[in-house]
């Protein structure tokens, strides 16, 4: 049976396999037939009690129905399709690809990410060749030395009446310059070797930090237990360059400070008590709101902890933190959806913003965003702001109006969007 | 009386090679190895042609070129720039400042000599 990667489609397939009518299944789990219809057509997010009830009635494990990792793969495949608009692919069959050939889907997404990373590496190396002052200086030295050798050697060859004194002088000059050339060539090769060793498949130090956090579900056990951020930055395999270590250290120090101010057990208990309200938690622990938002996203996944995503950006919109919740894949490359409250927060620094948003698949989230100073405030310099947005998945039946958002324009099929900055490729292919 | 070339260059062995070539070709060669006071050196020597390196201690050849072109006495002076920085943007910068010719290292002796002669001849024709 070809399975769809989307939860609603899977529910529909399993219901039909069992010969159940939509109305009967809806009645058995206590929801309306129209709502089940929306779920089956992936127009409403499904989770929590409803998912459990459905899986029980259908006699299958809830994980068989739930989306999440598959959704992220679908988004990455869409991104892969968007990166090469000249090659038409069957976009409407991505779900089938993911469901029927998960290994191939994973392979394509891995290769796509590798390709994008290499493209960025090439761009970075190009930048270095153009702007790296060390490389520029070494190149200048090599060319100057070659120039001296060439001119001098030409004189020796082209001047038969050259006196012995001049000959000796020019031979000596060539000897001197050839030694210098050997040294400067070796120095340049060493510099290029350092550059090439930085190619680990991750384009930037930030990508390495993202990989380290993703690999641990954004919960760093070592730091929860009072570990040294510096030691951790040197231990993690994803942190594979000096630049990445320096960047990771900043992130890990912030994590440690949050863990110290909001110890895990106490924070988790308070989160349940205060219904995961970041403002209330910030008040309880006397920390800035952005710290409480970060801390909520670092809670370990568990049965009693909701699916929480986190994204942050600088004032230019560049993503600094990226933790995707199930049902809303955050872009791997480039900027996100301009409609995210994350960006609205930048327009009103210091003002917390809470909005209900809905992803393309109907998954809904409470988005809580805030722009806050990212460093010390000074009288003689303009403040530098970062924005942070917590995404908390909302349970099933919610008919409140939500802001329709996407991942990023290129792989968002929403039509009639005022915020669109470039055409989607999903409707072109 | 021979014509004078002012060679503004800081690499000793390039200075020696170019000086040898130009002198064998009948030029009087004056050397200046600092960028900081190169404009003053040009005013002092009053050369017929300047061979100017780009990367010099104290000041870049681009800045020196720009200053020379802003002076009435050196506005038309033949200036041959030699550089290991052969990127398009460097060439465009030099041309925007009014360089007579832009030559990248490593160059052939014949090419360099020929260009010095050519620039001088063109300046004589113009005057």
Automatic annotation (TrEMBL), chain A:
It comes from the Bacteria. Residues 11-65 form the HTH cro/C1-type domain. Pfam families: HTH_3, ScfRs. One of its GO terms (molecular function) is DNA-binding transcription factor activity. It comes from Litoreibacter meonggei. This is HTH cro/C1-type domain-containing protein. The keyword Transcription applies. The lineage of its organism: Bacteria, Pseudomonadati, Pseudomonadota, Alphaproteobacteria, Rhodobacterales. The keyword Glycoprotein does not apply. InterPro entries: Cro/C1-type_HTH, Lambda_DNA-bd_dom_sf, ScfR_C, TransReg_Diox_bact_type. Keywords: DNA-binding, Transcription, Transcription regulation. One of its GO terms (cellular component) is cytosol.
UniProtKB/TrEMBL annotation, chain B:
GO terms for molecular function: DNA binding. Gene3D superfamilies: 3.40.50.2300. Transmembrane segments: none annotated. The modification 4-aspartylphosphate is found at residue 53. InterPro entries: Bact_response_regulator (IPR050595), CheY-like_superfamily (IPR011006), Sig_transdc_resp-reg_receiver (IPR001789). Pfam families: Response_reg. It comes from the Bacteria. Residues 4-120 form the Response regulatory domain. Signal peptide: none annotated. This is Response regulator receiver domain-containing protein.
């Amino acid at each position: 049976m070809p399975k769809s990667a989307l939860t609603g489609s899977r529910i529909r397939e399993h219901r039909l396999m069992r010969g159940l009518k939509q109305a009967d299944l809806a009645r058995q789990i206590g929801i309306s037939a129209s709502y089940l219809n929306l779920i089956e057509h992936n127009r409403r997010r499904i989770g929590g009690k409803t998912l459990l009830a459905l899986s029980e009635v259908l006699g299958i494990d809830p994980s068989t129905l739930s989306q999440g990792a598959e959704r992220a793969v679908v988004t990455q495949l869409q991104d892969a399709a968007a990166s090469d608009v000249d090659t038409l692919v069957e976009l409407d069959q991505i779900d089938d690809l993911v469901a029927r050939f998960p290994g191939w889907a994973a392979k394509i997404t891995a290769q796509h990410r590798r390709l994008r990373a290499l493209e960025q590496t090439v761009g970075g190396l190009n930048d270095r060749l153009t702007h790296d002052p060390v490389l520029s200086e070494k190149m200048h030295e090599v060319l100057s030395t070659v120039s001296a050798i060439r001119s001098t050697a030409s004189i020796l060859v082209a001047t038969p009446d050259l006196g012995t004194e001049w000959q000796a002088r020019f031979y000596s000059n060539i000897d001197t310059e050839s030694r210098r050339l050997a040294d400067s060539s070796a120095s340049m090769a060493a510099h290029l070797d350092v550059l090439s060793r930085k190619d680990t498949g991750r384009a930037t130090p930030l990508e390495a930090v993202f990989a380290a956090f993703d690999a641990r579900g954004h919960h760093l056990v070592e730091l929860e237990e009072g570990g040294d951020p510096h030691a951790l930055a040197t231990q993690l395999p994803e942190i594979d360059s000096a630049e990445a270590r320096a960047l990771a250290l900043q992130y890990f120090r912030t994590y440690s400070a949050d863990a110290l101010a909001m110890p895990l057990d106490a924070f988790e208990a308070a989160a349940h008590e205060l219904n995961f309200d970041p403002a209330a938690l910030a008040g309880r622990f006397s920390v800035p709101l952005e710290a409480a938002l970060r801390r909520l996203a670092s809670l370990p996944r568990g049965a009693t902890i909701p699916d929480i995503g986190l994204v942050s950006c600088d004032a230019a919109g560049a993503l600094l933190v990226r933790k995707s919740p199930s049902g809303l894949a955050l872009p791997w490359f480039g900027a996100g959806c301009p409609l995210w409250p994350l960006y609205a927060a930048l327009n009103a620094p210091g003002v917390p913003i809470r909005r209900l948003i809905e992803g393309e698949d109907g998954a809904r989230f409470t988005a809580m965003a805030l722009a806050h100073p990212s460093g010390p405030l000074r009288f003689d310099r303009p403040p530098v702001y970062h924005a942070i947005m917590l995404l908390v998945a909302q349970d099933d039946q919610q008919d409140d109006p939500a802001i329709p958002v996407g991942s990023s324009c290129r792989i968002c099929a929403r039509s009639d969007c005022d915020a669109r900055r470039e055409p989607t490729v999903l409707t072109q292919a | 009386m021979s014509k004078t070339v002012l060679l503004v260059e800081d690499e000793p062995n390039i200075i020696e090679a170019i000086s040898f070539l130009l002198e064998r070709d009948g030029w009087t060669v004056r050397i200046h190895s600092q960028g900081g006071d190169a404009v003053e050196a040009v005013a002092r020597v009053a050369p017929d042609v300047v061979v100017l390196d780009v990367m010099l201690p104290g000041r870049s050849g681009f800045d020196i070129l720009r200053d020379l072109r802003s002076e009435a006495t050196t506005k038309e002076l033949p200036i041959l720039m030699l550089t290991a920085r052969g990127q398009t943007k460097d060439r465009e910068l030099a041309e925007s400042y009014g360089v007579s010719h832009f030559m990248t290292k490593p160059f052939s002796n014949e090419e360099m000599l020929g260009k010095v002669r050519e620039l001088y001849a063109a300046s004589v024709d113009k005057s």
